[in-house]
Design goal:
By secondary structure, this protein is α+β, with helices and mostly antiparallel strands. It is built from nine helices and six strands, in the order αβαββαβαααβαβαα. 27% of the residues are buried.
Amino acid sequence: AACIAGVFSLEDGLRLIAERGRLMGSLPSEGAMAAVFAEEALVLEAIAPYQNAISIAAVNGPTQTVISGTRQAVAAVLERLEEDCITTHPLNVSHAFHSHLMEPILNTFEETASQVKFFAPTLPLISNVTGQMVQPQEILDASYWRNHIRQPVRFYQGMQTLADAGYELFLEIGPTDTMIGMGKRCLPKGTGTWLASLKKDESEWRSLLNSLATLYVSGWDVNWAGFDRNYP
């Protein structure tokens, strides 16, 4: 999203993603993550006794919070939550992302990111770190991308920011439509039009054409000359 918004070039974006993945993969395969179907405030209270061992990794909805940390701490918190009849779901992950277990790679990643030339976004962009719109002339620099590894993903707040700004059309650009389900849970039932680029159990062209058809009958302009152009 930052790349499309002009924050950095495609080449630099690929470089950051590759280095981020390489560094994360170099860490010991330890730690655990779990989804907790409860609001953030309740989860914060549950993890309070384990401040140095567990973190909030993501807030994906009003009652969907992800925790991340050492296996023992995560297991203890899940046991307590389940005793209080709160549904939890351990996640199948290689590492405890967005937790203190990521800290050994932060300095190295920031050094790599500091070599990238960053620009103010040329399109409206919402930060996953704050859940708020990036302000004009605000530069998402190397320090920001360092925090992006460690801080919680504020998906729920980001969806609320979009809704408050009046957006009603939501297009997921990705290999599945997983985020659409998450997005819908963040907003009142019946809000908006939700379109997928690709779906897991549907052919690529059918997914793309169904979304294009929805846009067309909703009154959006379609560049039919571009649509009908040869692949090259």
